[in-house]
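To fix ideas, we reproduce below one chain and its tokenised fold.
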Amino acid sequence: MFHVKHADYDATASPDSALSRDDGPQMDERSAAHRVKLPVKVVERPLRQVAKRLLMALLVLVLTALVVYVDRAGYRDSADDSVDLLDSFYYATVTLSTTGYGDITPVSDSARLTNIFVITPLRVLFLIILVGTTLEVLTERTREEWRLKRWRSALREHTVVIGFGTKGRSAVQTVCATGLKREQVVVVDPSAKVIDAATADGYAGVMGDATRSEVLKRAEVGKARQIIIAPQRDDTAVLVTLTARQLNRSAKIVAAVREEENAPLLRQSGADAVITSASAAGRLLGLSVLSPAAGMVIEDLIQQGSGLDLVERPVVRAEAGKRPREIDDLVVSVVRGHRVLGYDDRSIGTLQLTDRLITIVRASPGTQITPHIRPLPAD
């Protein structure tokens, strides 16, 4: 039986601060129905759409009236046997609206052919324009289901983020900075507001309790390459990790916990790497007190895409046979086989083509962190 220690929380925290807290919202909204929400394209304002449709309908009306007026000799008005411009607009209006009083009728062959091949299609177009909004609403559900099916069939090797609080968002931004497309990220969170924020940023979202396997299946966890677990509670992180590892044996799972003593439980549950947020922040605070400059350097390394970055890359042919200190980049560690060796480890000897280097480089648009290497235990 797992016993997870809970961190102390501020009881005065506002319940509406889900998007501004250090973590995602609490997982106590389990009664909410889980659903998948895909990013939507930015559309025009409703009033502008209505105005455009009314303008199109007016153009169709004017075009029909002009067609009738040009061929007015082929029409008869029961009132005075003649058709003028006003009669043409009147006939166009009652015809396009399918009212059809019958007081103005086509009598010549040309007028009847015009009604068959011109005015009838215009009538259909006029009705489609007017009821376009209704048709769009009726077909929205079918279109959304089609989008979901196509999305599921195309989703492979993606990244699933459990909890879209400050840590979850920062993790996604870091991964996307390496070249991962937003379409390859799925956010799982129990809050509808958080999912709306995620889809507004271009990510697919699944609203629901991530401790339930059905919710994770909707996020296609079984086909994911990477899973980032960043809920608010440590016990939730343990349950989500157990469920995710059961659904996907090969995915790289990285989890965040508040209390350091809960980290071994996450590793036992199947997490490949565990980040202790509270102790990491505390160490950075202590380091900044002792050496503000050193704290600034560590913070610079943490911030992806600016200043200095940690980059994992393979050894190039020109570097093979050299020692770590002899290459141009600043080498921090060498990954050899299943071992992570420090730059000063004597067992490294010279670099091999099969090695990988963890280096500190100046951040640039072309700098990328290798995102798919499983964490290795250090000797």
About this structure: The two ends are 30 Å apart (CA to CA). Residues 6-32, 366-379 have pLDDT under 50 and may be disordered. Residues 323 and 346 are 10 Å apart (CA to CA).
